[in-house]
Amino acid sequence: MRIVVLAGGIGGARFLRGLKAATPDADITVIGNTGDDIHLFGLKVCPDLDTVMYTLGGGINEDQGWGRSDETFQVKSELAAYGVGPEWFGLGDRDFATHIVRTQMLGAGYPLSAVTDALCDRWQPGVRLIPMSDDRVETHVAVELEGERRAVHFQEYWVRLRASVDALAVVPVGAEQAKPAPGVLEAIAAADVVLFPPSNPVVSVGTILSVPGIREAIADAGVPVVGLSPIVGDAPVRGMADKMLAAVGVESSAAAVAEHYGSGLLDGWLVDTADGATVERVEAAGIRCRAVPLMMTDLDATAEMARAALALAEEVRT
Amino acid sequence: MRIVVLAGGIGGARFLRGLKAATPDADITVIGNTGDDIHLFGLKVCPDLDTVMYTLGGGINEDQGWGRSDETFQVKSELAAYGVGPEWFGLGDRDFATHIVRTQMLGAGYPLSAVTDALCDRWQPGVRLIPMSDDRVETHVAVELEGERRAVHFQEYWVRLRASVDALAVVPVGAEQAKPAPGVLEAIAAADVVLFPPSNPVVSVGTILSVPGIREAIADAGVPVVGLSPIVGDAPVRGMADKMLAAVGVESSAAAVAEHYGSGLLDGWLVDTADGATVERVEAAGIRCRAVPLMMTDLDATAEMARAALALAEEVRT
User: Fold this and answer.
1) Would you say residue B151 lies in a domain?
2) Residue A72 — pLDDT band, cuts 50, 70, 90?
C-alpha cells in the first residue's frame, strides 16, 4: 500500500511512528512542511523536516518532541557570549551539525529535496521524506505589538512570543510562486490513500496545501483522503492551533477543522471519542466521520489511530 | 610606544602574551597571517587570528596551544555521523561558534578586518588585531603523493599529512592580488618598532610579507625591525618549520633564517644561547645579533624575550 502523509512537526512525526508500526510493509511518502524554516546564524534550519527525520530515525529528544537526544548547548552559549542572537531559538550542538551540513549542501547548489535525501541517508527514517517545495516559503504571522501591526516569522510568533498575542493573519509568503518539490505530485498521483495527521491545520497541513498544485493533486487523485483531528474537546492536543485557527476565522473544534478542509478535499475524518457528539455535524458536511481515541499517549495508541484512519479510508473507498 | 608585530599562530600568540606583560602600556598592533585560513563545512576558519585572539583573551586551550579551553566535540562527531568531513581538522563546539559568527558576518558583507574587530569586542585581547588582508590568500604546498605532484592546502599538509612528506614549494595563492587590510600600512608607518616573533618564517611571517606593500612599508618605516629565531639548535622550537624552510631552500638554522629575511628588512635578530656561535655569522650579514634564552617556557621567560627584543631595537635605533 502506498500512503502519502502531509506532515508538520511533532504531531505529524509521532503519528508517522504509529503508522509505521501499524503498516510495516507500506510504502510511505511524507510531504513535509517547510513554511517553518528559518535562517539562524546564517544557517538554514528546517524544524519540521528535522522533527520527522529525528523522530523516525531514533534521534529525537522524546521529552520535548523536537531537537536531538543527549543534546548540549555549547555553541549556543558561545554565540550568546558574542552577543549574537536570537537566544530564544534553542539550537543544540548536535542539531547544529544538521544545519551546517544542510547549509553547506544548499550553498553547493543542491535543492532542499536532495539535501533532505542526503540527511535521511544517515537517519533511515523508513519513509520517503520530501519537502513540500524546494522554493522558499516562509509563514508570517500578522500581530499587533505595542500598538503597531507587524508581520513576524512564524518561529518568532510561536517560540519567542509563545503565541501570547492574537494572530491577525497567517501568510505563507512565497507560496504562490512555489512549485511542489520533485516527487511530490508523483507520490500523490500514485498513492492508495492520503492522510492528514493531527498536525496544525493552518501552519502545517494548510501551508503544504498552499503550494499551488498540491491541493488539486490530492483532490484529483481519486483515492481516500482521511484526516485526524488535532483538536480534542475544543482545545488543541498540543501546541497552540487554536490561535492559528482564529486567525483564519475557524472555530477551535474538531468539526470546524473538518469543514475548513472541506468535502472537496477530505473524504474521512477521525474525531476523538470526547467529540462523539460532533460526528453528525461532520457527516452533514459530506465527510465520513468516526470517533476513536485520538491521544498519542504511546506507540500502541498511535498505531491504533493509524489503523482507524486506514480502516476509514477503506470504508470511504467502497 | 607603538609596536607592530607580525604574527602567525601559537608562537606568535605566546610571544604576544609575553610582550604585553613586558610592556603593559605599549600600543600593540598585530598583523595576523590569514594564509592558513580554510573553509570547512561551509564556514570560514581563521586559525592564526583565532589563536592570537583566544590566547590573549583567555580562551585558549593552554595545553595544545590552539582551540578553546573546556572544549567539547559534539558537532564534529555529528558531522562525521553524516559522513561529512574532513575529520582531520579538530573543530570543537565552542570554536564552531566563532566560525559561525564570522561566516555570518562575512556573508552579510563585512570585510574580515571588521569581523575580526567584532570578535575581539568579546575577547578584549588588549592588542589591535588586524588580518594582513581582507582579500583571500591561501597558502598551498606542493608535494609528491603516490608518485604524483599535487598542491594541497597548507592545513592539509600541516594537519592531515603532519608534514610527513617534503614540501617542494610553498605558494601563497592570491597574495599577488591582495591588498593590505585597512590599518595595516598605517600601523606600520606609525610604529616605533616592528617585531617578528618566533613564528614560522615561511608560512606565517613570510606569508604576511608576501602581501604587496607590507614588506616595503616595513623596510621604509625607518624604525628598528627585530626578530626572534624560531629555530634553536638547528631545529624548530615547535611545529615543522624546517620542512617549510627546505621548500624555499633555506637551511634550518637561526642564522639562515636571519639571512633569509635579509638586512634590507631586518635590523636585529635574537638567537638562543644555544646558538651563540652563530652571532658572528648573522652580524656579518649586516644584522645586529644577540644570544639570549629563547624558550617560551612560561610567561616570565617570554616577557624576558620581549624585553631583549625591545632592548635590541633601542640598540639598533641609535
Assistant:
1) no
2) very high
